[in-house]
Every structure is written in structure tokens, then in C-alpha cells.
Amino acid sequence: MMYLGFMSLQLRCAHTSYRLAWRTNTYFRCAPGWMDTNSNQNCVIPICNPPCQNGGTCVAPNKCRCPVGYDGPDTSCTTLRCSHLLPCYPGTCISPNSCHCDDGFTGSGQDACLTMTRNNGMPFVTLSRVTLANVRRTDNTTKFSYSMDGTSGYKDTVWSNQKDFNYLSFEFNSAYMSPQLPYRPNYINDARLGIVDGHITANITKIPRSGTNRDMAFQKQYKCPGIADTNPNNGMVDCILTDNQFSLIIEHGDWLNVVFIAKSGGFRNVVNFDHPNSIWNTQIYQGLTDQKEVEFKFDFDVPIHCSEPNIAITCRVNDVPLHIENELTKLPVNISWAGWKDDLSKMDRYHIEVFKLSPDPYGNLQEMTPLKPVHFDDINHTHDGIYQYAYTPSEEGMFSVLLQAVDKANNSKIARRFLLYVPSSNISLNTRYMWQTTKAGKTTEISVVWKNHFINKFISEGKLLNKVNAYPIQFQDIQREGILQTSKFVFPGLDDNEGQRTVDEKQNKNGIVRFEAVISLSDGTNEPQKGWFDINGLAENVKFNETLRDGITARVWVRAHDVLGNTISDNIEVHFDSSEPLVKNNSTVFTRNHPNGTYIFTSSLNNA
């Protein structure tokens, strides 16, 4: 735009012969807001005041055409608005430059809505399993394996007594369901959310040889393939990773720590709308993580009892590895124990097993089914005092009771005690038995024999007081394969060598463990209340030295006891008559040792 102007001037000068005349001049000027180009009277350049900022273009007087992303008062391009320079996604742009992020997202400026919150950004580790194994390389046979799931909380700890692992495997599942993303503005050409990272860290630490900090012996990270910030998985990630070269020697006191980590996230591709065919920037969503931790702690030492030799623990009163209060009984049984300790993993539980004993071909008692107890139970270790356990066998017989003291790493030590339970058995008399008596001399000595006259048939026929064999060792072959503490046996020094019933045979005669005798010279038939004495060595005979006279009756009493406290007594009368018989009738013939009699050594009287 231009303007033309005119001006005239006439001067009259006195005192001069000159005379000024009017002359007209023409000049050029652009209209306000415009500017000439190169003084060629072409006013096509607009003027913006203040000048356009941030790359804006002045397209008319005081009017800027701003680049994508800018705005401002008087269209000066000084204010950044929602765009590729100030993304607001997922969210709502409140004109011109305020961003309200959708629920579950936060952030400001160029990082607006890039941070995910717990409202919808939390992934979940749904499976975290560690498997330690020993796999034979020649044929890939698994000798043994041990698996642990981390599902009960942030961190799960398990104690183990296994070692010689050469194979480490992980199963890792994680899930994340992303929210439905809203319609994209023109400056976002792609956006995706999901799980962007799944990895496992494993390390082994050892008891320090010096100091207090544990020594790091192994550290490695295992990463799930196929997922990344720019390649999120919206749904479930299943990941199985193995390390078949794992060969670190596991020692007593080692810790294996495994952490499973899943992370959510994603990306948004931001484009400059002025150049929509090229990505201006790829921005990464900052998601959240979930993790589960599994820790293996290794303990190869068995529990100890304070009564064992070379143990630096002082036993208290009643600190016994295993005790049966009434081991020979007709009544319910009370079992007790105390004094068990474990230094590293600590005590975990006590496992009780009851086996019925039967005689082997040699007559010794034995657990014939050493893996099939007639009764078993577990009692958790809750204190260091005395544990009491009541038990009543379901049938009569001789039983072995095994107490397995177990620590948290499954190391164990077994003690054994015996129990005879016969609630209904009694002593009986051999009804076909004939008492035997002899008299030495004429008046002073009486000998009585009662061999096999008293018997407890149940105890005798079952050989329940015979020697008890050692508990047969179980799983010994498996332990030779390298699995620690697999074999099951009664620990030396903890077998039953105390009380009334031990591993040794209990001396008895037909189930009888004690005989008493007494002689009564009165005619009474009541059992005497005093005067009884024990028969040494379970002899089934007794001798009395008494002053006797013709016509007197001596009654010998014998009383038998079995191990259960049952008693029975029997007696025999002995009449003394040293006079010879007289035959007054001369027609009667007396015959000694009559040969045709029913009984030998008898006499007869017959008429002549």
C-alpha cells in the first residue's frame, strides 16, 4: 500500500530584484502496517509489532501465522498450546495450554500424561517359580529337582537341604490389561500400552569368611524376550528361562535370592502436524512394576539334642529326646519330648510314627512295614519346653514309636521308644499241668516244681518281650545318588536303651517276669498276706526247709506276675504220713505198683 502527497511554495522578497515562484513536489509512503520492498514502491510486506516469536510468520499487520503448537496474545506466537510440543494424551486439552490427564495418568509439560499411576498402570506377577535340579548330561535324566513358587506375598523364603544342582529354571507369568485409550489428536499417530519388561535376577551369597557382609558368589539377570518399551504386550506374558550351565557349588549357609520383575509401560508417537509423514518424537510411558521374590536358604546340618555327646548345650530337667511314661500298659499312653535345637534354619516340626512290631523268622521283633505306620501325626515346633502327646493304640501288641525332629530345611533326626499295650490280656494256668513235689529225707526239705504252669499266652505266643531289631534304614540308595538327608534311620544313641522295655530281650518265662512263693503249714485255704519272697532268675521251682510231723498238711503258694502288672496265684497241698499201712483182714492181699492199674506207681488191695 502506498500514498502520494503534493506541496506548493511562493516567496516574495523585499528589497531584491529576485522573485520566488511556487514549485510542486510528489513523495511515496506505505500504509500503516506495511513495508516497502527494496524501495520499489511495493508495499507487500506486513509489519507485526511485537515481532512474531518461535518461528511465527507475520502475514498481516500485527497478525502472525504461528507454527503448530504456539499461540499467544495479539497472535504473537509466545504461548505454547497442546500439540506435538505440548502433548496431552491420553487426556483433554483445556485451551490453549492446560492438559487434564485421564484417570491413571499424570505429568506436565512435554511429559504430560506420560506417568502411569496405580489406578490402571499396575501389572501383576501371576507365577514366579524357581526350579533347581540335577540333570544328568549323558541322557538328560533328572536325578532330582526342587521347585518353589513365590505366590504368597512379596517375598517367600524356603529352607532346603539339597545341593549338587546343575540346572536352574524359571517360569514367569505376568498380566496387565491396559485401559481403552481415547481417540488420538492429530499430533499423535500411534500409542500403545502393556507389559514392556519382564526379567529375573538371581544371586547367591555365602557366609563371609571374615566380617559381617555376605560374600557375593553368583549374580545374573535373565530377560524375557520379545517385549520392550516400543513393543508392549497388552495381556499375558509367559516366559520360561533356563540356565543349564549352572554349576556353582552350594554350601551350608548359602542363600539363593531370585526376584521376578514385571513392568508396565508403552509409547506414543508424536508428529509435527506441519510434517505429518514423519515422527517428530517417540515418547515412553513410565509404568509401574510388580515383583515377587523367592529365596532359598541352605542348611545341611541335622538338629541336635542336648543329651548327645560333644554338644555344647546343657539339658534341663525332663529334656529327653523321647519318653513314654507308661510303656507297659493297659491304659492310654503319654508321650513327651524336649531339648531339641537347630542352629541355622531352626526347628520346624515333630513327626510321630507308630509301627506294630512282629517277630521275624529268628523270633526278633521288627517293623515289618517300615514305611506304613499304623499311626502318624505332625506337631509344629512352637516353644522350647516340653511337648506332650496322648496316644491310644487301636489294637493290642508291641509297638515302636518314632519321633522325627525336623528343622525348616527338612533335616531330621529320629529317636525310637517301645510300647506294649495289652488292655485285656491276663495270666492263665495250664490246666493239664501236674504239680510235682518231692521230699528229701524224712522231715526237713520240700521241693515244688511248676514248669510251664503259668502263662500269658498273648505275650508269649507273640514273642512280645523278645529282642527288637534295629529300624531298617530306608531310602539309602537315593541318598547315595546325592540327595542329602534322604535316608530314614534311627540315629545312633537315640534308640530305646532306657526304661523297662528296651531293644534288648526282657527276661521272661511264657510272658511271666516274676515269681513269688510262700509256704503255709496251717489248714487254711486263704492266700497268705505276708511271707512271700521272690524266686531268683525266674526259676520255676522252690525248696522249703521245714520241721514236719506226721499228719501235718503243708500248702505251697506260687504267685506269677507279667509285665503289665497282672498277677495270678495257685497252690498245692502236701500231706505228710510216714506210717505204713496195716492190713487187718488176712484174706486181703496188698499189691504195690499194680501193673494193670490206670496209673503207674499205684497199689491195690484185693481179696485173696
TrEMBL record:
Residues 44-78 form the EGF-like domain. SMART domains: EGF. Keywords: Disulfide bond, EGF-like domain, Signal. Transmembrane segments: none annotated. Gene3D superfamilies: Laminin (2.10.25.10). The keyword Translocase does not apply. Disulfide bonds join 48-58. This is EGF-like domain-containing protein. The lineage of its organism: Eukaryota, Metazoa, Spiralia, Lophotrochozoa, Mollusca.
